[in-house]
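Predicting holo structure, zinc ion bound.
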Amino acid sequence: MSTSSEIKYICPYCGREMTITIYQTVNADTDPDLREACMSGDIFRHSCPHCHTDFMVQNPLVYSDPSHKFVLYVSENPVSGIADFAGPLVRSGYRLRRCESVRAFTEKIQIFEDGMDDVAVELAKYDSFIEFIDNRKGRPEDVTSVEYQRVFDGVMKINIRTDDKGLTFHIPVGMLEEEIEEDKERYEVNDEDFPCVNSDWIISLFTEPAGNGVQN
Ligand SMILES: [Zn+2]
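Done. Tokens:
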């Protein structure tokens, strides 16, 4: 079951008051139409009845998909108060993640519905980015997005976009799994913390000093 509430909201454009429906929880199994609204981002999109301007409200949302066994918490801030139910979920095989943005949220749904390990996806995105830079296809600052596309025949497709072009990288999933297996501890995530498994996370694995972090 999904839960929502009606709240009074002041239009950020015309300043007039309206009522909007905010979802606190979405269950993808029982409400497939709401799953669609999550994938498109429409669940956070509202329209002012007075000035007819569309705007986004990224309210905290708990998205659960019992069929694919994952729960996503959409919030810019770390989890508080929902850690209690994390333990039992993790023990029954659920993956728990926090997503800071709507874009990260929709991508994560896709990854988990595809049955992929998101750690492998972030590694693939990281590897693709490094290859893109090393082969001088462009400068790091030109990259506007690095996106998971899909997996087909054991090969993961990653798209790197700049303002004027897009490049697709093909990475064998087996290779990623080996890379993770060889350095298991580095890639370990604790689901109970609702971790953000994103580009910042993977970069931190390679840049943070293991010992003392003292800088002069
Ligand atoms: Zn308005």
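The longest helix spans residues 118-134.
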